[in-house]
Specification:
The chain has one domain: Rossmann fold (3-Layer(aba) Sandwich), CATH 3.40.50. The chain has four helices and nine strands; from the N terminus they run βαβαβββαββββα. The strands form two sheets. Strands 4-3-2-5-6-7 form a six-stranded mixed sheet, sandwiched between helices. The longest helix has 18 residues. Bound molecules: inosinic acid and magnesium ion. The site of magnesium ion has 3 residues, from loops.
Protein backbone atom coordinates (compact mmCIF):
# COMPACT_ATOMS: atom_id res chain seq x y z
CA UNK A 1 0.00 0.00 0.00
CA UNK A 2 1.19 3.56 -0.76
CA UNK A 3 2.51 5.38 2.34
CA UNK A 4 0.09 8.32 1.83
CA UNK A 5 -2.93 6.00 1.82
CA UNK A 6 -4.60 5.39 5.16
CA UNK A 7 -6.70 2.40 4.14
CA UNK A 8 -7.94 0.64 1.02
CA UNK A 9 -11.64 1.24 0.34
CA UNK A 10 -12.02 -0.65 -2.96
CA UNK A 11 -9.52 -3.41 -3.74
CA UNK A 12 -8.41 -4.48 -7.23
CA UNK A 13 -10.47 -7.64 -6.83
CA UNK A 14 -13.60 -5.69 -5.91
CA UNK A 15 -13.03 -3.25 -8.80
CA UNK A 16 -13.13 -6.21 -11.22
CA UNK A 17 -16.39 -7.48 -9.73
CA UNK A 18 -17.98 -4.01 -9.86
CA UNK A 19 -17.05 -3.52 -13.54
CA UNK A 20 -18.41 -6.96 -14.43
CA UNK A 21 -21.70 -6.35 -12.58
CA UNK A 22 -22.25 -2.86 -14.01
CA UNK A 23 -21.20 -3.97 -17.51
CA UNK A 24 -23.83 -6.73 -17.47
CA UNK A 25 -26.57 -4.35 -16.28
CA UNK A 26 -25.68 -1.72 -18.88
CA UNK A 27 -25.44 -4.29 -21.69
CA UNK A 28 -28.91 -5.57 -20.80
CA UNK A 29 -30.47 -2.10 -20.51
CA UNK A 30 -29.00 -0.82 -23.80
CA UNK A 31 -29.21 -4.05 -25.80
CA UNK A 32 -31.31 -2.49 -28.59
CA UNK A 33 -29.78 1.02 -28.45
CA UNK A 34 -26.74 2.70 -29.97
CA UNK A 35 -25.03 3.68 -26.77
CA UNK A 36 -22.68 6.66 -26.49
CA UNK A 37 -20.39 6.45 -23.47
CA UNK A 38 -19.20 9.89 -22.39
CA UNK A 39 -16.38 9.96 -19.92
CA UNK A 40 -15.29 12.92 -17.87
CA UNK A 41 -11.55 13.58 -18.00
CA UNK A 42 -9.30 12.90 -16.36
CA UNK A 43 -10.46 10.97 -13.32
CA UNK A 44 -12.87 8.64 -15.13
CA UNK A 45 -10.47 7.33 -17.81
CA UNK A 46 -9.41 4.29 -15.82
CA UNK A 47 -13.00 3.32 -15.06
CA UNK A 48 -14.00 4.03 -18.68
CA UNK A 49 -11.30 1.65 -19.94
CA UNK A 50 -12.59 -1.11 -17.66
CA UNK A 51 -16.33 -0.58 -18.04
CA UNK A 52 -16.28 -0.39 -21.86
CA UNK A 53 -14.63 -3.82 -22.03
CA UNK A 54 -17.47 -5.23 -19.93
CA UNK A 55 -20.16 -3.82 -22.23
CA UNK A 56 -21.30 -6.18 -24.98
CA UNK A 57 -23.85 -4.00 -26.83
CA UNK A 58 -22.90 -1.64 -29.68
CA UNK A 59 -21.28 1.49 -28.27
CA UNK A 60 -19.16 4.51 -29.13
CA UNK A 61 -17.03 6.51 -26.72
CA UNK A 62 -16.21 10.18 -26.30
CA UNK A 63 -14.62 12.47 -23.73
CA UNK A 64 -15.36 15.79 -22.08
CA UNK A 65 -13.24 17.74 -19.64
CA UNK A 66 -14.49 20.00 -16.89
CA UNK A 67 -13.07 20.98 -13.56
CA UNK A 68 -14.54 22.11 -10.28
CA UNK A 69 -11.70 21.26 -7.93
CA UNK A 70 -8.51 23.10 -7.07
CA UNK A 71 -7.42 20.98 -4.10
CA UNK A 72 -9.37 18.67 -1.79
CA UNK A 73 -12.33 21.07 -1.47
CA UNK A 74 -14.91 21.85 -4.15
CA UNK A 75 -14.95 25.42 -5.44
CA UNK A 76 -18.56 24.99 -6.57
CA UNK A 77 -17.64 26.43 -9.97
CA UNK A 78 -17.57 24.18 -13.04
CA UNK A 79 -15.17 25.05 -15.83
CA UNK A 80 -15.66 23.58 -19.34
CA UNK A 81 -12.28 22.54 -20.78
CA UNK A 82 -12.96 20.10 -23.62
CA UNK A 83 -16.13 19.46 -25.60
CA UNK A 84 -17.36 16.24 -27.24
CA UNK A 85 -16.25 15.27 -30.76
CA UNK A 86 -19.46 13.30 -31.45
CA UNK A 87 -22.76 15.24 -31.78
CA UNK A 88 -24.99 14.26 -28.81
CA UNK A 89 -28.19 15.13 -30.73
CA UNK A 90 -30.55 12.12 -30.63
CA UNK A 91 -28.07 9.89 -28.82
CA UNK A 92 -28.60 7.62 -25.83
CA UNK A 93 -25.82 8.82 -23.55
CA UNK A 94 -24.34 7.18 -20.51
CA UNK A 95 -22.00 9.48 -18.60
CA UNK A 96 -19.13 7.55 -17.05
CA UNK A 97 -17.83 9.31 -13.94
CA UNK A 98 -15.24 8.42 -11.32
CA UNK A 99 -17.13 9.79 -8.32
CA UNK A 100 -20.43 11.54 -7.63
CA UNK A 101 -19.68 13.90 -4.75
CA UNK A 102 -21.45 17.29 -4.49
CA UNK A 103 -23.12 16.46 -7.82
CA UNK A 104 -22.42 19.94 -9.19
CA UNK A 105 -20.27 18.64 -12.07
CA UNK A 106 -22.73 15.99 -13.21
CA UNK A 107 -25.85 18.11 -12.95
CA UNK A 108 -24.09 20.75 -15.06
CA UNK A 109 -23.05 18.17 -17.68
CA UNK A 110 -26.50 16.58 -17.74
CA UNK A 111 -28.09 19.97 -18.44
CA UNK A 112 -25.59 20.79 -21.18
CA UNK A 113 -26.29 17.48 -22.95
CA UNK A 114 -30.07 17.80 -22.54
CA UNK A 115 -29.96 21.25 -24.14
CA UNK A 116 -28.21 19.65 -27.09
CA UNK A 117 -31.12 17.24 -27.59
CA UNK A 118 -29.66 13.98 -26.36
CA UNK A 119 -32.38 11.28 -26.58
CA UNK A 120 -31.60 10.04 -23.07
CA UNK A 121 -28.96 10.66 -20.44
CA UNK A 122 -28.04 8.34 -17.61
CA UNK A 123 -25.17 8.37 -15.18
CA UNK A 124 -22.80 5.60 -14.21
CA UNK A 125 -20.59 6.57 -11.26
CA UNK A 126 -17.88 4.25 -10.04
CA UNK A 127 -18.13 5.78 -6.55
CA UNK A 128 -20.96 7.59 -4.81
CA UNK A 129 -20.28 9.87 -1.84
CA UNK A 130 -23.83 10.90 -0.84
CA UNK A 131 -22.78 12.69 2.39
CA UNK A 132 -21.64 15.77 0.51
CA UNK A 133 -24.45 16.09 -2.09
CA UNK A 134 -25.45 19.65 -3.02
CA UNK A 135 -27.16 19.21 -6.39
CA UNK A 136 -30.39 17.23 -6.81
CA UNK A 137 -28.92 14.32 -8.76
CA UNK A 138 -28.53 10.54 -8.42
CA UNK A 139 -26.55 8.02 -10.45
CA UNK A 140 -28.44 5.32 -12.38
CA UNK A 141 -25.56 2.87 -11.95
CA UNK A 142 -23.29 2.97 -8.90
CA UNK A 143 -20.17 0.90 -8.30
CA UNK A 144 -19.82 1.50 -4.59
CA UNK A 145 -21.00 3.97 -1.97
CA UNK A 146 -18.08 5.43 -0.01
CA UNK A 147 -17.96 7.39 3.27
CA UNK A 148 -17.22 11.12 3.37
CA UNK A 149 -13.45 10.83 3.05
CA UNK A 150 -11.09 12.11 0.37
CA UNK A 151 -10.24 9.14 -1.82
CA UNK A 152 -7.47 8.61 -4.39
CA UNK A 153 -6.41 5.97 -6.88
CA UNK A 154 -8.07 4.21 -9.83
CA UNK A 155 -8.03 7.54 -11.71
CA UNK A 156 -8.84 9.77 -8.75
CA UNK A 157 -6.22 12.32 -7.79
CA UNK A 158 -5.10 14.75 -5.16
CA UNK A 159 -3.36 17.63 -6.99
CA UNK A 160 -2.83 15.28 -10.00
CA UNK A 161 -1.10 12.59 -7.93
CA UNK A 162 -2.10 8.99 -7.12
CA UNK A 163 -4.23 8.40 -10.27
CA UNK A 164 -2.09 5.36 -11.09
CA UNK A 165 -2.84 3.42 -7.91
CA UNK A 166 -4.69 0.23 -8.94
CA UNK A 167 -7.06 0.44 -5.94
CA UNK A 168 -9.13 3.19 -4.27
CA UNK A 169 -7.81 4.33 -0.89
CA UNK A 170 -8.57 7.03 1.67
CA UNK A 171 -5.86 9.68 1.50
CA UNK A 172 -4.11 10.13 4.80
CA UNK A 173 -5.16 13.55 6.24
CA UNK A 174 -1.48 14.28 7.02
CA UNK A 175 -0.91 14.71 3.26
CA UNK A 176 -3.17 17.73 2.94
CA UNK A 177 -2.49 18.99 6.47
CA UNK A 178 1.13 19.65 5.37
CA UNK A 179 0.02 21.94 2.54
P1 LIG B 1 -18.71 16.92 -7.67
O1 LIG B 1 -18.99 17.97 -8.71
O2 LIG B 1 -18.52 17.52 -6.31
O3 LIG B 1 -19.72 15.79 -7.65
O4 LIG B 1 -17.27 16.31 -7.95
C1 LIG B 1 -16.91 15.80 -9.14
C2 LIG B 1 -15.42 15.61 -9.28
O5 LIG B 1 -14.69 15.99 -8.11
C3 LIG B 1 -15.08 14.17 -9.48
O6 LIG B 1 -15.17 13.83 -10.83
C4 LIG B 1 -13.67 14.10 -8.96
O7 LIG B 1 -12.76 14.44 -9.99
C5 LIG B 1 -13.62 15.13 -7.89
N1 LIG B 1 -13.74 14.50 -6.54
C6 LIG B 1 -14.79 14.51 -5.71
N2 LIG B 1 -14.53 13.82 -4.59
C7 LIG B 1 -13.26 13.37 -4.71
C8 LIG B 1 -12.40 12.57 -3.87
O8 LIG B 1 -12.73 12.10 -2.77
N3 LIG B 1 -11.17 12.31 -4.38
C9 LIG B 1 -10.73 12.77 -5.59
N4 LIG B 1 -11.50 13.51 -6.40
C10 LIG B 1 -12.75 13.81 -5.96
MG1 LIG C 1 -13.19 14.10 -12.27
Amino acid sequence: MHEDVEKILVSEEEIKEICKRLGEEISRDYADKKLLLVSVLKGAVVFMADIMRNITCECEIDFMAVSSYSNSKTTGVVKFKKDLDIDPDGRDILIIEDILDSGITLSYLKNVLLQRNAASIKICAFLDKPANRQADITADYVGKVVPDEFVVGYGLDYNEKYRNLPYVGALSPKVYADK
